[in-house]
Design a protein that fits this description.
The complex is a heterodimer of chains A (257) and B (264).
Chain A: H1 2-29, H2 40-52, H3 56-87, H4 89-103, H5 111-118, H6 122-146, H7 150-158, H8 163-200, H9 206-215, H10 219-256
Helix pairs in contact in A: 2-10, 3-4, 3-6, 3-8, 3-9, 4-6, 5-6, 6-8, 7-8, 8-9, 8-10, 9-10
Chain B: H1 2-18, H2 20-43, H3 55-67, H4 71-102, H5 104-118, H6 126-133, H7 137-161, H8 165-173, H9 178-216, H10 220-230, H11 234-263
Chain lengths: 257, 264
Amino acid sequence: VSRNAGTWAVRAGAVLLVAGLWEVAGGLVDGGIAGVFPSITEILAAWWRVIQEASFPNDVSMTLQEIVSGFLIGGAAGLVAGVLIGASPWLTRVLEPMLFWASGVPKIVLLPILLSLLGAGIALKAGHATLSAFFPVTLGTATAIKTMPAIYGRVALTSGASRLQTVAFVYSPAAAGQILTALRLGLGVAIVSALLAETSVATAGVGWRAIEYYEQLRIPEMYALILTIFIAAMVVNISLERLISGYTRHFDEQRGR
Amino acid sequence: MAAATTVMSRRRSAAFRDSRTALIATRVLIILGVALLVELVVGLDLLPSTFIAEPTKVVQSLGEAWSEGTLLPALRTTAGEVLSALALAGVLGLAIGYLLWRYRVLGTALMPFVNALFSSPIVLLYPVSLVLFGRTETAVIVQATVYGVLPIIVYTARALSEVPGVLHRVSDVNCLSSWRRLWYVMIPSAAPKLATGLRLGVTYVMISVVSVEFLVQIGGLGQSIQLAALRFDMAGVYAHVLAVVLVSSVVISVLHAVEKRVQR
């Protein structure tokens, strides 16, 4: 109990330290540049104004559409490509390094090319998210398939399972943990990509709105919105991580039996 | 006899197919095939050149950017920012990761925050960097440092915590001081994971630097792409994108090779 209390005390201390440093920095910097470090109460008040603005629901809905459509298309394409590559040792050897190099390229540089192909609408941001989600999902799925113990397939074969049954009841559950993790990573980069694309070419969306606030020098609103985006992204990511680790534990227990 | 010859020939062709030369040749053929396809599609006006530039024009534009002296300064700016951010992220990440491992309470309390930040859209903080440092290279470097430091912290703390207990006991038996234990036992044992953290750190730093350069147009390769796009110079856009792809691929391949070597 005391260790747990110590952990929480350190966490609370860290939060207070960051808040204190922020306020002190605000006092120091604001002597020269007013508004760079608004006080925490100002940011909270701005947050209330931000979520009450008439444009807020539309911005959220626009960003969600971009993220969801980009993730679904990129994730589905990545799954198919990953299964095909992972199932063939030759394709793995030829294509995996190329995908690995491509995955490290900052996708934002492709925005002008996507802009000429998809226009400046929602398709551009969704396309950017699609492209970004594709690589981690493909690489993760290919790894899940290629590292699956060969004995699973042999056991299914000797048990007389059909090809469909083997895929549905043997391969899918065995690879699901790694594939779900790849999908979580894909969703993470899809969120970042859609938001980044919005900051460059958009007329709505939360990423675009944050830049609008910056350009209008509404700095407390900008901090409030960025903080909201951060918390939302973290909640989604942590929830998915817990779900996946729960599933993986369940599968490991099943396999242990 | 004929059957044996066929088997031998099949084995030889399978061995060639799996050889390193054949793999590289296949990759080159794939890239050339795609380039040729694009060249034909655009050359035959099936797709307008305002959408996709012909690969020959892209290579020509890249050569022009090099000979006109615009590519090298951009490359130098990006490399300088990447190296500065990487140095900062490396030092901070290794130090913070070590502290989080060394003081358990700190690690238990703060690692969830670090992990949560690791999975959050840090790149989106660039307006904050702009507010604090203006449209300067410092803003790009600080932003990239913040983005790149997180994987280094996470992997450093994880690497040190996974050092086998027997090595700690051996260090105790040999009465090693904290520094000697860290230098001679902990770091060599943790090196593979530390290398992974540093590789991820470099990748994140590079992504962040090019993204902010592109979005805010502060020098470097990112700005070159944006400027070419504003001039509607598609060949220029593709040429600079190609430069980014080449640079990132080379850096990632080198880092991957180093990581594999350390892991061996």
